[in-house]
Specification:
- The complex is a heterodimer of chains A (about 110) and B (about 110).
- Chain A is mainly beta.
- Chain A is built from no helices and 11 strands.
- Chain A has strands at about 5, 10-15, 20-25, 30-40, 45-50, 55-60, 60-65, 70-75, 85-95, 100, 105-110.
- In chain A, a hairpin with a 5-residue loop joins β9 and β10 (about 100).
- Chain A is globular and about 40 Å long.
- The model of chain A has no long low-confidence stretch (mean pLDDT about 90).
- The radius of gyration of chain B is 13 Å and the shape is globular.
- Chain B contains no helices and 11 strands.
- In chain B, strands 2, 4, 5, 6, 9, 10 and 11 form a 7-stranded mixed β-sheet that branches. A 4-stranded antiparallel β-sheet of chain B has the order 1-3-8-7, with no helix packed on it.
- With about 110 residues, chain B is mostly beta strands.
- Helix content of chain B is about 0%, strand content about 50%.
- The model of chain B has no long low-confidence stretch (mean pLDDT about 95).
- Classes of the chains: A mainly beta (about 110), B mainly beta (about 110).
- At the A-B interface, β4, β5, β9 and β10 of A face β5 and β10 of B.
């Protein structure tokens, strides 16, 4: 069983500050790493799909990097806004096409 | 374009009963995956359907079964419900299941087993 670990479990950030959190995994034998944002009472929303070592993706104030050799991905949020409050999930996609999720980082932005 | 829809939103059952959850995929998608999210955990893969057949399965007992219809919609059936089956059940759809394909999730069905 592969453990996808996310840290921290929860995070409180002042509005306007930047923040980042981590997804770590023991193996590079996967097809892709997915990041999702999940707001309360809504559907998980896909943010990024990353496949290659050194991949960097950006969507507005949110960006992500992938380091398959050292087994981690970072998600960065620049200038946090209240609407960024959500749980951020990472998941690895293996050749059998199933996603293996971490337990998520719960982000709360303090106005 | 409607995204992934699931029904019902909430459901309360008692131990030993059977339940059926439904999912309609995003328009144009042909693959449906089901996940269980227990409290404090990340979503756990149950199984995936493609071309009306179960293509992959996670570590769930045979009490969990599914079906995919010709219109790509899907059902998740759970028999002989246990208290531990209480969870949020998520459905996700994609097209073809390629490695860079994003899975689009529905809002989930909250199942409570009493």
């Amino acid at each position: 069983i592969l453990n996808v670990e996310q840290s921290p479990q929860s995070l409180h950030v002042q509005e306007g500050d930047s923040t980042n959190f981590t997804c770590s995994f023991p193996s590079s034998n996967f097809y892709a790493l997915h990041w999702y944002r999940w707001e309360t009472a809504k559907s998980p929303e896909a943010l990024f799909v990353m496949t290659l070592n050194g991949d960097e993706k950006k969507k507005g104030r949110i960006s992500a990097t992938l380091n398959t050799k050292e087994g981690y991905s970072y998600l960065y949020i620049k200038g946090s806004q209240p609407e960024d409050s959500a749980t951020y999930l990472c998941a690895l996609l293996f050749g059998n096409e199933k996603l293996t999720f971490g337990t998520g980082t719960r982000l709360t932005i303090i106005p | 374009d409607a995204g992934v829809t699931q029904s019902p939103t909430h459901l309360i059952k008692t131990r030993g009963q059977q339940v059926t959850l439904r999912c309609s995929p995003k328009s144009g998608h042909d693959t449906v995956s089901w996940y269980q999210q227990a409290l404090g955990q990340g979503p756990q893969f149950i199984f995936q359907y493609y071309e009306e057949e179960e293509r992959q399965r996670g570590n769930f007992p045979d009490r969990f079964s599914g079906h995919q219809f010709p219109n790509y919609s899907s059902e998740l059936n759970v028999n002989a419900l246990l208290l531990g089956d209480s969870a949020l059940y998520l459905c996700a759809s994609s097209f073809g299941g390629g490695r860079e394909d994003t899975q689009y999730f529905g809002p989930g069905t909250r199942l409570t087993v009493l």
